[in-house]
Each structure stands twice: as C-alpha cells, then as structure tokens.
C-alpha cells in the first residue's frame, strides 16, 4: 500500500499547484486508484519568508509548525515543502514536528552531484534564499560551488518571483536573458531554478536557452515524492 503525502503549501499557491500537477504527471498510473494519496494544506497566510530573513517581517516558523501539525494529524506519512526559502527554517521545523520531511534542497544537491559531478552551479532564488545561505549549507558536502548573480540581478529575480505570485504569466525573453547574462559570462551552464515560482517562468521557454541545464527544484521534489510514496 502506498504512503500518504502531505504538502505544506501556499508559498505560493501557484507553486503548490505546479508541484501537485507534476506529482500526478510523474506517477505511473492507468486509473485513479493507482495515484498517490496527497493531502494539501495550501496556507498562503504563512508570513513571508524572505521578509523575515531580511529583518522586515514576522517569523513564519509558528505558522509552518501549525500547518505541519495539521498534516500530521490528518495521517500523512511524510511532508514536502514546495518553497525553497522556507528550507531556511527546515531544522527547527523538523525538530518541532515529529514526522518525516523531505529536504528539497538536499535532493537538488544529490541530483546535481550525481548527474554533473563537482561543478559550479548558478542559483536563481529569492533574496532570502541567498542571504540565508540555504543552498550553500547543503552543497558544500557534495563539492558544489554556488554562483550567485549581482545585487541588481537579484532584485530583478525577486521582482519576477513576486510578479508570478501576483498572477503574471508572460515574461519577455530579453528580460530572462538579462538575468542569465552573468552566468553565461562565467561559463556556468548548470542553473538551479531555486524558487518554486521560477519553473512557471522558465518551463515554457527552456528550448530558447539551449546553453543552460536548468534544474527545477519543483521537478526534483516531485520525482522524490513519487519514489517514496509508491
């Protein structure tokens, strides 16, 4: 019998829906009953993670714990979190709620180390993820060097992310090329879409960037979820 998966979502809602769709698409199934039992707590009221890390907002750990407890009490076997920046609070969350969690950031590191070896990896993410060293914490043990954009490009990425959260769905190729220009100059061709809003931007236009290997944190989490649940 398969396991029941809990999605601690709402950060943001579109990213949560994208993860759910990808889990469904990746599940080998010929009928409804072959699919994974998933309980989603889409909680958009969790305080902004980047705001807190930057010293400008409420600590989200309380809301994260409350949401995880609801999932646990509803009988899930493990919890996944489709928000990269929320993994800044991962250790405290795991300590507070006695249930298995899947660490999306570590799974991304394992995937890159397995498929590309020790290399330099460009990171597109929120300012909170950069400032919190969310990826660096796990990547060091896999021999991966994290390459980050300039401060000006970081601000552009954050603007892009919040535009997705507000409902925008079309972005000019020139704008995305500008965001990637520093990686291209440095010869970095493995790039993490390290915010779960970013696959919504890049997935439709990947073929226009053949010089980059995009690593979607959402895709990696979906693949691991199917593996564990089935």
Topology:
Blueprint: E1 4-9, H1 13-26, E2 37-42, H2 49-53, H3 61-73, E3 78-80, H4 90-96, H5 104-116, E4 120-124, H6 127-131, H7 136-139, E5 145-147, H8 151-165, H9 173-185, E6 190-193, H10 198-202, E7 213-216, H11 217-229
Parallel strand pairs: 1-2, 1-3, 4-5, 4-6, 6-7
What's a quick, concise take on this entry?
With 230 residues, the protein is α/β, with parallel strands linked by helices.
Would you write up a description of this structure?
- The protein is of the alpha/beta class.
- The protein folds into two domains: 4-103 and 220-229, Rossmann fold; 104-216, Rossmann fold (3-Layer(aba) Sandwich).
- It contains eleven helices and seven strands.
- It has helices at residues 13-26, 49-53, 61-73, 90-96, 104-116, 127-131, 136-139, 151-165, 173-185, 198-202, 217-229, and strands spanning 4-9, 37-42, 78-80, 120-124, 145-147, 190-193, 213-216.
- Strands 5-4-6-7 form a four-stranded parallel sheet. It has a three-stranded parallel sheet with strand order 2-1-3, with helices on both faces.
- α10 links the parallel β6 (190-193) and β7 (213-216).
- The protein is globular and about 50 Å long.
**Runs with pLDDT <50, length 5+?**
none
Structural class: alpha/beta
How much strand? 5-15%
Q: State the CATH class of the largest domain.
A: Alpha Beta
Annotated CATH architecture of the largest domain = 3-Layer(aba) Sandwich
As for the CATH topology of the largest domain, it is Rossmann fold
Widest sheet: strand order? 5-4-6-7
Rounded to an integer, what's the Rg over CA atoms?
Answer: 17 Å
């Amino acid at each position: 019998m398969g396991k029941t998966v809990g999605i601690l979502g709402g950060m943001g809602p579109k990213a949560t829906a994208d993860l759910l769709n990808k889990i469904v698409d990746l599940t080998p199934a010929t009928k409804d009953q072959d699919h994974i039992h998933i309980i989603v707590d889409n909680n958009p009221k969790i305080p902004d993670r980047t705001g807190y890390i930057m010293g400008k907002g409420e600590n989200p750990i309380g809301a994260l714990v409350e949401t995880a407890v609801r999932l646990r009490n509803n009988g899930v076997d493990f919890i996944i979190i489709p928000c990269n920046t929320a993994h800044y609070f991962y250790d405290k969350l795991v300590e507070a709620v006695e249930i298995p969690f899947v660490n999306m950031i570590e799974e991304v590191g394992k995937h890159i180390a397995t498929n590309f070896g020790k290399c330099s990896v460009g990171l597109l993410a929120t300012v909170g993820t950069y400032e919190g060293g969310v990826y660096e914490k796990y990547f060091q043990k896999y021999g991966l060097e994290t390459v980050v954009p300039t401060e000006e490009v970081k601000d552009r990425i954050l603007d892009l992310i919040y535009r997705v959260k507000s409902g925008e769905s079309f972005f000019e190729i020139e704008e995305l090329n500008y965001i990637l220009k520093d990686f291209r100059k440095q010869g970095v061709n493995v790039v993490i879409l390290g915010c779960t809003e970013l696959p919504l931007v890049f997935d439709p236009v990947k073929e226009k960037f053949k010089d980059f290997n995009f690593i979607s944190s959402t895709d990696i989490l979906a693949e691991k979820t199917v593996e564990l649940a089935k």
